[in-house]
Amino acid sequence: MASPDLTNPLVLQAHVSSTFLPISTLTRLTGGSANFTLRATVTPPSSAPVDNAATVIIKHAEVFVALSPDVSFDPIRCHFEYVALASPPPAVTCAGGLTLKTPTAYHYDKHHHILVLSDAGEKSITLKAWLLSPDSSTLKTASLGQGLGVFLRSLHSWGGSPEPRNELEKNTQAATVWTWATYGRLVETIDLFPSLLTYKELFTEVVSAPEVDEEKTLLHGDFWCGNILLSPEQDVATVIDWEMAKVGHVWGDIAQLCAELFLPFQFHGTEEGLEIMDEFLRAYGEVSEEVARRVVVHFGVHLVVWTCRVPGWGSAEAVEGCVKVGAGFIEKGWKKDWKWVKESVLGAVVKEEWIKD
C-alpha cells in the first residue's frame, strides 16, 4: 500500500487526527526551510496530553528539504529533535522575570516523521523579526541577553551528562551540514569577492587546522535569532528547532547567536542587538582562551559565508562590506589580537591577562 502524501495538509490533518489528536484546521507557517511546519487547532474535547492548549505545532520531515524538494535530507532529523525535546534542558528564569524554555514534545510518529509540539502562541515573534522591526527599541535587552547567556551555559553544562547526549552524538548529519555550511564554504566565498583574495592563505589555514583539544558537549546546533520566539510581553522566550542538536564545541552556538545579533546593527544601525550580545556574553561567563579565539573566528566565518547567501540584508556593496568585516574578525581572532578584540563588539569574551603590550 502506498504511503500517504503527508505534504498535503488535508492528508496530514486526517492522519494526525486518527493517530493522536483530533484537529480541525491546519495553517502552514513561514520560517524554516527543511520541514513542513504547521499550526493546528485542537478539536475539543481532547483527552490527549496537550496542557489544555487550543493550538499545537506539527512538524513533518520528508526525505527532502521542504522548500527545495530537489535537495535530499534524511528525515532522521525529526528523531533527533524529538530526542532533544523529550529530555529537555531545564527551563531558566532570570532575575528580570524572563523564562527561557523549550517546546514540549507531545507526540512523535517515528514511522511517518511527525512531531507534535507545544505552541509558543500565534502572537509570538522571533527575535530576528523584532530586531528588524520599528519596535526594536522596546526590546528588554538586559534581561533578554542575560537570559540567553544563562540558558546556553546551562544547556552546555547539562549536556555533559549521558542522557540525551549518547543518542544525539549519533546526529552526524547535523555535524556534516554545519561544517559544510560554514568552513566548507569559506575559501570558495573568495571567488564571489575578489577583494578577499589577500585572505586566501589565512582562510585555508583556518579550514585545515586540526581539531582543538577542548571538551565537547551538547549543542543546540542552530542557535540564532530566528529560533528564539518571544511572547509579546517578553516574559517568555522559547528556543525552537532542535533538529540540529548534536555534540560538539561550544563556540559554534555562542558565535552564531552573536553574529546574528550583530547583523541588524551592521546593516541598519540597530544597537539593541549589540546590547543583547554584550549581556549574553557576560552572562554566559568565562571561557578558555582557545574557546574565545574560536568564538571570534567563527563570528567572522558566519559573517563571511552566510551574509552573501541570505538575500535581503542590503545592497551588494553593503554585503561586501559586511563580508570584509567578517574577514577582519577571522584574522584578528586567529592571531589572538586580544587588544583589538577587546575594543570590538566581542570585547566581553576577552580576559585582561590575555592582552600583551
Rounded average pLDDT: 93
Q: What class would the helix/strand composition place it in?
A: alpha+beta
List unreliable stretches of 5+ residues.
none
Bin the strand percentage. Answer: 15-25%
**Roughly how many Å is the radius of gyration?**
21 Å
The largest pleated sheet is described as: 5 strands, antiparallel
For the termini, the CA-CA separation is 73 Å
Helix proportion of residues, in percent?
A: 40-55%
Mass-distribution shape: globular
Output the number of helix runs. Answer: 12
SSE pattern, N- to C-terminal: HEEEEEHEEEEEHHHHHEEEEHHHHH
Q: Tally of extended strands? A: 14
Which strands sit side by side, in order, in the main sheet? Answer: 1-2-3-9-8
What does the model show?
- By secondary structure, this protein is α+β, with helices and mostly antiparallel strands.
- 41% of the residues lie in helices and 16% in strands.
- It has twelve helices and 14 strands.
- The chain has helices spanning 9-19, 76-86, 127-131, 141-158, 162-168, 172-181, 200-208, 251-268, 272-284, 289-307, 316-334, 338-342; strands at 23-28, 36-42, 55-60, 64-65, 68-72, 92-93, 99-101, 105-109, 114-118, 125-126, 217-219, 228-230, 236-239, 246-248.
- It has a five-stranded antiparallel β-sheet, with helices on both faces.
- Strand 8 (105-109) and strand 9 form a beta hairpin.
- The longest helix is centred in the C-terminal third of the chain and has 19 residues, at 289-307.
- The radius of gyration is 21 Å and the shape is globular.
- The mean pLDDT is 93.
